[in-house]
Amino acid sequence: MLRIACPWCGPRAEIEFSYGGEAHIALPEAADALDDAAWAQYLFMRTNPKGRHLERWVHTHGCRRWFNVVRDTASERIAAVYQPGAEPPEDAR
Amino acid sequence: MAELARDDRLRQGAGISIAERPARACIDLRGDVTDARFVHAVESVTDLRPPSQGLAAASGLLASLLWLGPDEWLVVSETQASGELCARLRQALRGVHAAVTEVGDARIVYAVAGPNARDVFAKGCPLDLHPRAFRPGQCAQTLLGKVSVLIHQVGQDPAYEVYVARSFADYAWAWLVTAAGEYLDGSEGK
Ligand SMILES: [Zn+2]
Fold it and tell me: What are B80-90's pLDDT values in tens digits?
């Protein structure tokens, strides 16, 4: 089980959290004008890296706030957590 | 004992006691803790400043403010009428960006106290309740078995209060009694 440091509550067990997929996926401008391929690209296509991944988590059973995590998908090491709307820390490798 | 809401909701042993507490005022309060007007207004009603740190609770004679999130607190009081406290908060917060919502009917509070209290929680609560990590006066939302709870440590002994959604109250009670089974009086042969 991961120990995830909620930016507001501190380190907690993974079962208190829910995973929210890759972070920084912005809704395209003029989304209603997209064709099916472009809409599918936005909805479904993700980077799915082996290694450093920027992802969203929500502290479901704690403060119920969303935040971002820098996690290595191979080692499970969490390099950083940061608040929604913020850019990932430079040194989070 | 007279203050217990239901006499069937009391289990005891040498090192543990679990009991349902009487209904109390619970008000969900949201606002900006960096806004001095918000802090002033809350203080004028409760005599307490909303704690800005996670895990923190502020307790006074009138009420307690339990931290729920960076802009959210649970105002609880065993002495104030819920509707009246709610109205006074709303009055004080007029013109301030804030939300005041009565939620007391949606909560049940269980008191869990005694030297074995941590052993009971350890059977299904991922929160670290060791004294070096969690102290009297602190509160945290976490899991108990499969349900979300708010745990507030109210005594050194240790003594805790567990806030549960009413719809999960029977589950949480059964979970606590089962987890405490080996420490309860008359557990032999049950
Ligand atoms: Zn949290």
Answer: 999 999 999 99
